[in-house]
Amino acid sequence: MKEDITLLVIAPYYNVFIKELTEATSIYVRNINVFVHHNYLSELALYLPFSRFRWVEKFSKRNLVNLKGLPNNVKVHVISMFYFVPDGKNINLGEKLVRKFSEYIRKNKIEFDLIHGHTTWPQGYVAAKLGKEFGVPVVLTIHEDRDWFLKEYNSKNEKIYWTWRNADALIRVNKKDVPLLKEFNSNVYPIPNGFNPSKLPPLTQEVSRLRLGLPLNKKIIFSLGNLVERKGFHYLIEAMSKILKTRNDVLCFIGGDGPWKGKLQNQINSLSLQNHVKLLGFVPDEKLALWMNATDVFVLPSLNEGNPTVMFEALGVGLPFVGTAIGGVPEIIVSEDYGLLCPPADPECLAEKILIAIDKEWDREKIRKYSEQFTWDNIAKKILEEVYLPVLEGDRKWQV
Q1: What is the count of structural domains for the chain?
Q2: pLDDT value at 397 more than 50
Q3: Could you tell me the residue range of the domain that residue 338 belongs to?
Q4: Which residues are in the Glycosyl transferase family domain (predicted)?
């Protein structure tokens, strides 16, 4: 099924889950243009010797956009500006981007039937404004983790509220927040994130461990995410100190990078866990399948989430999930056939669940089959059928 739809996507970056969803969607539509705004300051940050600019480097062009394997009917436009105030605090950025994008659309004669914005500010705001200007419907996906979303909900920020009210449809990545969003918009769809199964070819545990140089006779748990406070890795490290009092054949590997790397390593050292807990740094896609397949249990100890993509990736290789009952996680881990949950910030419970999980006989094929509904291909079809086509019934189109 391929619809004659031209889509404009407005996103904070073209990478990871936004790239994967867009490219899955490209199979079902005629073409997609993606707008990503870029701050020239992020390029200068590479040459400035101040620590506060290290975060800004993340928004340089090479980090914002990944064009590897880009489909022929997807075009990514990086639209550059110069400004000093960070996006989240820049109350004027939305209007500046609306003007910049509008000029770019007219100059380059870009056609679109529908705009899809990802995250509320400033992308969703810009999408809604452009939808009004060019007379096309707007869909907004609210990817924000739950703390971020609740701050927006309670902010009394009229630009945030205006955005939610003026989108033709809102997509929230969990069901929990749908009633809150329905205060602003009657068309709210709970559609979770997904995963790309092509990144995760099936491999045996033995082969995966041999390729990674891991022992065959140990229980291995794996976790992955940005090394920031909200991911809760400090609770996983504390849980490991408790697990090792019960059994000493457990190894924990944490993939990812971020500002908490030094703090987490100090915690590992202070608890004398160097032989049992390892920080891997950034894990590239080509290594992710090896780590997922080498592992006995995937653990995500987050303090808050929207609906973490990495959970779906773990389930996609039939890996049982142990994590915290936050955000949309309990909506996916609906049975102990797929994983075990505990409250956030509770290392005692986390240790207990991990010990249960590494001893349990899991039906990994059942987990893998369950995950198939969450492939990006299936999520893209769901968005097309349940959201795009209904809002396009008005048959509005922008054409230069």
Answers
A1: 2
A2: no
A3: 198-372
A4: 209-373
